[in-house]
Specification:
The complex is a heterodimer of chains A (111) and B (426).
Chain A lengths: L1 E6 L5 E3 L13 E3 L2 E4 L12 E6 L5 H5 L8 E8 L2 E16 L5 E6 L1
Chain B lengths: L26 E9 L1 E2 L6 E5 L5 E7 L2 E3 L2 E7 L5 E7 L9 E6 L13 H12 L10 H6 L6 E4 L5 H11 L2 E3 L7 E3 L9 E2 L7 E5 L6 E9 L2 E9 L1 H7 L3 E5 L6 H15 L3 E9 L8 E6 L4 E13 L4 E9 L7 E5 L12 E5 L2 E5 L12 E4 L6 E4 L5 E4 L7 E9 L2 E10 L1
Parallel strand pairs in B: 12-18, 14-16
Antiparallel strand pairs in B: 1-8, 1-9, 2-3, 3-7, 4-5, 4-8, 6-7, 10-11, 13-17, 14-15, 15-21, 17-20, 18-19, 19-20, 22-23, 23-26, 24-25, 24-27, 27-28
């Protein structure tokens, strides 16, 4: 399945991988730095539903995108399902973690 | 060897031959309030503090200001100087007695101990017996020169627990290995005393969880109940990050003015996003609380960060730090409230003296402004003479009422009750 993240910051931005290029909104800033999504977690008695987007930042790509960290901005994980694009998860950006590694930087989105 | 984790060696009331029940005998600082301890079986003699104090300004019986008492510093049955409050008639069983006043005095100057550094020094050195030189607190004293504390030690908590509660009340951080022991944080940017090699700080995290843009500090806590609350919000931060509230208790604050200063200073930082930056393999000796110049390659942020934690590895002679670096500009603030319930604890600037045999009083607000039209009552349980202050805040009572002994003047200004004025005529 192809997934990407839309962050409704000011201005908004999309975080995606190469496979999502045909589906993202061309009018919105797009950063091809998504490595993968972590597990979508939910627990009726425990943690608030959340998901982590893992970012590529070996050469500072994510740093450039997150220089004004979009904390508390609404964030939506989209998934391509057949011919349809579906909102899979909606939340707000809870935290941004950056490090200069291929897959150590993250954005946590919490419901 | 004393440790800062040792408990403060408070005395308890079993020291007295005829104590009623075993309770810690408090130490009191600044303008503060707290329960009276029954000294003996007469129910006329009570103790407010385990040391001499500057004054007892008011006594409340079940929450109502009462008269018919005198306060004095005197020795107890063990020969130790304490603060007594003595009533003319026995107080009924079950009545909760709270006294408000001004606590411990400086051993040399005799002035009220209320500067945070002075209070901290008294607790850590004079009470806990820790071998800290007075000069260690000089920077903190200078930094807190405009702040006053009010509070009590009412149980034998560890010294560090008390120090930390005191510092948190005024928006300060402390640690035994900090230079100067304590500093305001957030506070005026201290000059950076070190810089971190960027290669040692290769990650950073910014989290929504640390943002607070609606802050309430509850203060003037008396018998567990806060009598004052100050609330600030940062509207631009709320608009951007949503309302994120925090309510904190400040057991060492009784001053309305200091509470407002502390709340405003804290929310200026808390309402902003901050990078938490771990840095390892630091070879310089950087202590917690120290300001560090950061020019971070990963987040492209630069500025003065503060070391909030440190782990030193003696095997490698290097430290791992956590630094905090705010993002963006200091937000504008809005004062939502600074409740008036605390006003009775505010030290007014009123003064009293005997002039040509008459009792002359000047009623003034906390900032020294004379109060016109304040209703003053001299000795409500005795001569009960009422007067109203003139434009200069001045009230004169007749000479015949100024008999030798202690006199009480109750003061009301509008809907406010000011601290009673206690005057001793010799």
């Amino acid at each position: 399945m192809i997934r990407w993240l839309l962050i409704e910051s000011d201005p908004p931005m999309q975080i995606h991988g190469a496979d999502a290029l045909p589906y993202i909104d061309p009018a919105v800033r797009a950063e091809q730095i998504l490595v993968r999504f972590g597990p979508f977690r939910s627990d009726v008695a425990g943690e608030i539903p959340n998901v982590v987007a893992v970012l590529r930042n070996a050469d500072g790509e994510a740093t450039d995108a997150m220089i004004d960290p979009p904390i508390a901005a609404r964030a939506i994980v989209y998934v391509r399902d057949g011919d349809a694009t579906i909102e899979e998860f909606v939340g707000v950006v809870e935290s941004v973690h950056l490090e200069l590694t291929p897959d150590g930087s993250t954005i946590e989105v919490r419901a | 060897m004393k440790s800062i984790s040792d408990r403060i060696p408070l005395r308890d009331s079993t020291a007295w031959a005829a104590y009623r029940k075993a309770e810690w005998i408090p130490h009191r600082y600044g303008v503060c309030g707290g329960a009276l301890l029954q000294y003996d079986g007469t129910r006329t003699r009570f103790v407010w503090a385990d040391h001499p104090t500057l004054a007892v300004d008011a006594v409340l019986a079940d929450g109502v200001v009462t008269t018919g008492w005198t306060a004095r510093n005197d020795v107890d049955s063990t020969g130790r100087a304490v603060t007594f409050v003595e009533f003319a008639a026995p107080v009924d069983e079950g009545v909760e007695l709270i006294a408000r006043g001004r606590g411990k005095r400086h051993a040399v100057s005799g002035v009220l101990l209320e500067n945070p550094a002075d209070v901290l020094y008294d607790i850590l050195v004079n009470l806990a017996g820790l071998p800290y030189p007075a000069a260690r607190f000089d920077e903190f004293r200078a930094e807190t020169i405009d702040l006053v504390l009010g509070g009590s030690i009412e149980d034998d908590a560890p010294a560090f627990t008390i120090a930390r509660a005191l510092c948190e009340s005024i928006g300060a951080i402390c640690a035994p290995d900090m230079r100067g022991f304590a500093r305001l944080y957030p506070g005026a940017a201290a000059p950076a005393t070190a810089a971190v090699d960027y290669r040692a700080a290769a990650t950073a995290t910014c989290s929504r969880a640390v943002i607070v843009n609606d802050l309430t500090i509850r203060y003037a806590i008396e018998a567990g109940t806060p009598r004052g609350a100050v609330q600030y919000e940062a509207p631009t931060s709320i608009a951007r990050f949503g309302r994120r509230e925090r309510v904190v208790d400040a057991p060492w604050l009784t001053s309305k003015r200091t509470a407002a200063i502390v709340a405003a200073r804290q929310i200026e930082l808390l309402a902003r996003r901050r990078w938490a930056i771990p840095a390892s393999n630091i070879q310089d000796t950087i202590r917690v609380g120290q300001t560090v110049d950061v020019d971070h390659p990963v987040v492209h942020a630069a500025g003065a960060a503060v070391a909030l934690s440190r782990e030193f590895d003696p095997a490698t002679e290097t430290s791992a730090l956590t630094l905090e670096l705010p993002i963006g500009a200091v937000p504008a603030l809005r004062l939502i409230r600074n409740s008036t319930a605390s006003s009775a604890l505010e030290p007014s600037q009123s003064s009293a003296q005997i002039v040509n045999g008459q009792v002359e009083i000047v009623i003034a607000d906390t900032d020294g402004t004379p109060l016109f039209g304040a209703d003053c009552t001299l000795d409500p349980d005795g001569n009960n003479i009422a007067r109203r202050s003139d434009a200069a805040g001045r009230v004169v009572f007749p000479a015949w009422a100024a008999t030798p002994g202690q006199h009480t003047v109750l003061v009301r200004y509008g809907d406010r009750t000011l601290p009673p004025i206690i005057l001793t005529v010799t």
